[in-house]
Automatic annotation (TrEMBL):
PROSITE patterns: GNAT_YJDJ. Residues 6-91 form the N-acetyltransferase domain. It comes from the Bacteria. InterPro entries: Acyl_CoA_acyltransferase, Gcn5-rel_NAT, GNAT_YJDJ. This is N-acetyltransferase domain-containing protein.
Amino acid sequence: MLKSIQHNPESHRFEVHLEGLNAYMSYVLTEDVIEYNHTIVPKALGGRGIGSELVKYGLAYARVNHLAVIPSCSFVAAYIQKHPEFQDLLVDQ
């Protein structure tokens, strides 16, 4: 896992700063539900698994804080589909 991922609660996102660029996963938090709505990784940082690390970090945050997850970002949804160990976090719909 990237050691430089930081939670920025004021901006509602998890961020990593590499090579002068910013990658992040943003969220909306309501009561006991966190909705991951965007994952942004600049092209220059692409192909290194940074997006996956951001998602893994965000899902770990949800688990530790007993939050249900809504993956409205397609990248987050695809990650959860490929990693069934996180499917228990999904909001019952």
